[in-house]
Structures
1.
Amino acid sequence: MSKFWSSMVKRAEPYVPGEQVNQQEIVKLNTNENPYPPSPKVLEAIHGEMERNLQLYPSPTADDLRATVGQRYGLTADEVFVGNGSDEVLAFSFMAFFEPGQPIRFPEVTYSFYPVYAKLFDIPYEEVALNKDFTLQIDKFFQSEGGVILPNPNAPTSLYAELDSIEEIVKNNPHQVVIIDEAYIDFATKSAAELIQKYDNLLVVQTTSKSRSLAGLRVGFAMGNASLIDALIRIKDSFNSYTLDRLALVGAKAAFEDEAYFKGSTAKIIATRENTTTELAQLGFIVLPSQANFVFARHEKFSAELLYNELKQEGILVRYFNKPGIDNYLRMTIGTDEQMERLVVALEKIVNK
Ligand SMILES: *Cc1c(COP(=O)(O)O)cnc(C)c1O
């Protein structure tokens, strides 16, 4: 702490991301990245742009990318906002829609960036308890004072709430914004984007980091009523006109234009997830029914902390949260079949020792 720090810096409690390592031999299953590379069309688009236009500023309005993303969901460009990763889009959303003095609600077990933003922007929050099986208590989110934010599927539980339940929450907060963070939706059943025409208080946030293999490019987006999008644009333009660079703009657009590639890689991950779930159950794990690109599981006999440490020794990184309620669970990203086989073999060795 220093006497020069503003009160904003003093109250900040920054998010700690999963460890990043660069060793080839490590099996990295700790930050929910996609094990497959992005579509070759993305690389082609980035190369082309690199050779032509880097000396010029990118488009401050990102209209082209916004139209392309909108098209996929039957929305217009003015119903889509794009940002530097969905983390930035979420931060802007906190500034745009939540107020100091009016408590917002999010689940007790959820994405740990939400309390970080709330503290930074001085927004009070209530953590809504989950059912014993980690599902959401839907009615506890009704009539919030300051708004609601929740991921669907939830992180790190991997559980998906049916669209009817999400709609109930949106409908029962008519005077507040409800943000649904759909970082993992492409591995699940149905996006809430189809409710946007019906509800002016719904903001759906998504990312290209997981299902489109572009965690390194940093492109996230929000979809909602044009006046919500306008609010996000006002925040962005009071901050930085060019949050997305030229490579990100063309790369993300190309990713959305290659639907076949996207369908193929998500289908592979879903199939691997189902196999991994079966294999982990055979090793004595209780695995929550995942609709994400990771599983959340605990072992009948061994503590998550022990398993995390032993796996690390074997060169396999998973995520362990030292937090009450979930400290006996491991969050394991779904990698390739080969990576998951290495995980299962290592776990077999540990539990049979
Ligand atoms: C990964 C993740 C994000 C952030 O994604 P970026 O677009 O890479 O910033 C947001 N919300 C949840 C729930 C996530 O798991």
2.
Amino acid sequence: MLIRKPAEIEPSEITPKSVYLNRRQFMATTAGGLFVAADAMASLSAKPGVPLKDEKTNSLKEATTYNNYYEFGVNKEDPAANAGSLKTRPWSIVVDGEVAKPKTFSIDDLLKLAPLEERIYRMRCVEGWSMVIPWIGFPLAALLKQVEPTAKGKFVAFETLNDPKQMPGVKYAVLDWPYREGLRIDEAMHPLAILAVGMYGDVLPNQNGAPIRLVVPWKYGFKSIKSIVRIRLVEQQPKTSWNMAAPNEYGFYSNVNPKVDHPRWSQATERRIGEFSRRKTLPFNGYADQVAGLYVGMDLMKYF
Ligand SMILES: Nc1nc2c(c(=O)[nH]1)N[C@H]1C(S)=C(S)[C@@H](COP(=O)(O)O)O[C@H]1N2
Ligand SMILES: [Mo]
């Protein structure tokens, strides 16, 4: 099947060869009462992303056992240990606010929005570690176009599920739940911003944000909100969980910027999980050629 490649994406990030995802696995996860429609299954053909030059893709084990997902605990091994209690079917995302066509998308609706693609992205956590992960997903823009944002839809606000019965961590007030994130509309429409439904050729493990999560590779990892249930288009910059918790440490934009230190540590270098020596952190996490244009004229020391 034909998969169009947005002009902004480097050829090195997507290869021309088609592969099939593990369809049996996608069907298995939907077996809790739901069938994936035939045309949705057809869209599950993906292109394998080419590994980044001089950067090894992290192992599935690394990407699934060293996580932040505070709804399941604050330690890196907690999400893998505790996220089994998350029920990922049935699932839907309510999309409303400043849009002409508000809509509730079931997971099957979401899988039909656009062909799935594999994207191998560098991910940089604000804590100073990074990984390279092969995600499977589709541009967030494909969903936003469906609801037709109005002229007042200047920002996009996202929310994670907030269910104490499934998420042992939400009884602790470490963050103001539900976990909330936000993007400016032009950031959200950028072709590098994807909604991921899988990784490593398979469905997303719960600890990585099943069944659907945001991936914004030029920003610190906390912007990439997991297990999304609500997306709202808004006129004013929305509140975000980490910014509410510590506004001097976590800004709204949170673009990866080696020149803006966290108040308690430097952001100039990072530890790639699996590597011994530290790497230099790249502006916009290495995606400056594609995304720097979004921020022309903005003081990125002030809007960190
Ligand atoms: N709902 C929710 N989403 C979240 C988090 C979280 O605690 N809750 N942690 C964030 C942080 S800080 C990072 S670094 C990434 C890490 O997970 P990943 O390796 O699966 O991207 O998830 C982000 N998304
Ligand atoms: Mo993070």
